[in-house]
Amino acid sequence: MELLTKTLFLCLALALTNGAPAHHDAAVDDASLPDRCDGIGFDAITPDEKGTTFFFRGSHLWEGFHGPAQLSNESFQQLDDIHNIGHVDAAFRMHNIEQLDHHDHIYFFLDDKVFSYHDQALEEGYPKEIQQDFPGVPSHLDAAVECPKGECMTDSVLFFKGQVVHVYDIATKTVKTKTWSHLPVCTSALRWLEHYYCFHGNNFTKFHPVSGEVSGVYPKDARSYFMKCPNYGHGGDYKVLKCSDVKIDAITTDDAGKSYFFAGPIYMRLDTRRDGLHAFPITKSWKEVTNGVDAVFSYADKMYLIKDDQVYIYKAAAHYTLIEGYPKTLKEELGIEGHVDAAFVCPEDHTVHIIIGRTIRAIDLSATPRAVTQERPLPFSDIDAALCSAEGINVFKGATYYNYESPMTLAMSRIAPEPLNVTRAMMGCEE
């Protein structure tokens, strides 16, 4: 299962990130370009405002998780053309929603200078002395990574120099230092999907951004996780679906604002566009659900996954944990029987709406025992999934969806509205 998880993680995440057929990183038409599969390591790693991750080494970079090297000045022209810096010491993407003039800008560091870029253009007035923008942060850095409030105590940046970490508070412009001697010296660092990685040579170590704690078996070879290389666990090529071919099994948003869709054996986070869209095996987060899902809904900091006549309920904490005593049958948990096609709960509501065939049933989740309080016919059948949000209800059927203002308008409708097409912005598919 671990090998399968790694294989799916690589094939799906890498392909979905860039939306292009997978291929080996070495450029077959230019053998002079560096090949990150040679284990050369990186000087800096950072995502941009669109969620594309850039890997820097010397005067070259790699755009995304697969593809050949290119000169850095092809993407960040003034970096070399004007200042001829040749390489960068560290880089990070700013997270500062209080100051949108700086939010999502990329900062590059070299010696005692800092460069600020947005949309791959150098901001006016840069480069500056590091002390002008980041007082108390040393020069000649090894690595840097952003750390948003909620993952760190405040919106912060972690600056690495040797085994000393300088924690920079963005709002107060103050620095606290920590020594993490248990970590290798990080030559680059990356925050990806709410996890933190210290890269050293061709390896990486995942760490906690506040304590520096390392959990699990590390280091691991970056070539097996953050790039596509021969003989490093890649098990075939996953092609991104065309939007016209999309068919999902379930979709939900939990109380923390994390949005997911499920299709076959995989799921994808939809609220992580700043890190790109990535697909993973369902068993990665919900290990007991081994054969896909029929429907999913979220309620009261819990996520309900329905497969056949079984209901799995997970605590929606940092890591989903199956509640003791589950799974239970649909009859035991919700007072219904039959094949569930879709389910949804609207924000701040206590009613789950269950679609079975051509009927929609309302169940009061605050009642004990739970039972159907209302049942109405629908103007269509063969529904795949449904999601309720502040914008209304989207009912998905293949590569199209129907939008309704509320559960009442859905339940009372007798004619289906004009179908809308699933888009790349919604599902990360190819249009």
UniProtKB/TrEMBL annotation:
Heme binds at H234, H278. One of its GO terms (cellular component) is extracellular space. Its main location: secreted. The keyword Iron-sulfur does not apply. Keywords: Disulfide bond, Glycoprotein, Heme, Iron, Metal-binding, Repeat, Secreted, Signal, Transport. One of its GO terms (molecular function) is metal ion binding. One of its GO terms (biological process) is intracellular iron ion homeostasis. This is Hemopexin. Belongs to the hemopexin family. The lineage of its organism: Eukaryota, Metazoa, Chordata, Craniata, Vertebrata. Residues 1-19 form the signal peptide. SUPFAM superfamilies: Hemopexin-like domain (SSF50923). Binds heme and transports it to the liver for breakdown and iron recovery, after which the free hemopexin returns to the circulation. Hemopexin repeats lie at residues 39-78, 85-137, 138-182, 183-229, 245-289, 290-337. The keyword Nuclease does not apply. Disulfide bonds join C37-C229, C147-C152, C186-C198, C346-C388.
